[in-house]
Design brief:
The protein has 14 helices and no strands. Helix 2 runs antiparallel to helix 3, helix 2 runs parallel beside helix 14 (259-272) and helix 6 (128-136) crosses helix 9. The longest helix has 18 residues, at 186-203. By secondary structure, the protein is an all-alpha fold.
Amino acid sequence: MSIDFGKASDFVHQHGTLFERALFDYLFAGGSGQRLQAIIMCYKNPDGGFGHGFEHDLKAPQSNPLALEYLLGVMKHTGIEPGVILDGASDWVESQMDEAGNLRNPPETRDYPLAPWWQEDGGQTMPDSIVANLIHFDRAKPSLVRKTKRWVAERHTPESVRANEWLFMAYHAVDFFFAIDDFPDLELYRAATIDNLLACAEAAPESQYDSLFAFAPAPDSIIAKALPADLLVKYLDVLEGAQTDDGSWLDQHNLRQWWPMTTINVLLALQRYGRWSANR
């Protein structure tokens, strides 16, 4: 099935946020990276954190871990240059840690629209992915890294990594264990992470297929090389044929606010794997 890029562009520009529209243009239409960075900075607060509904599930303007976690994941996946975007982020994360290393969420998050799965804690409390991606961008201070390593060591084992049953949720292990190079039994954790990804990918319904390419963003990526080639082909075949009549790709929960970003992610995966190109 051929990709209708015009319909995809129309959908994202009609339904996406200003950030999503700018990201689409940056990735597929020669859009300005400086403009994209400036738009991201509109979500940043003076304390060094991010809020203002940058992550769709939490609309509070106050800085919160979920907004930074999402931003870092998007930046790493799409190749956005950090510039000054992450200035102060490491200090902000460390300021939100309690003695055990869990992240606090401002109580005001509950005063704004909040996805039901975040109601109990008011947002993300796990620091592993956030700190790992700060490490990726060389923006994590040593004290923050030490605290996060201790938090991970107290909560995760290779067995607990393998016990994950949701493909999407593998990002905690993937981000952390492939960002650091000094951790007890690191190779065992990395092997467990690959094993879990493969098990989750083999069991995942087609609605979750786009999630795999957050971990295997391109054919030469570490995870892609570790996964069976026929599995990647199967996933790409499904995604290539999954564009809807309005030009979008649907997210696994069928939540319309996520369709523009899902569309961006699928197009990027198909382009990186040679299934489609915006330049054709």
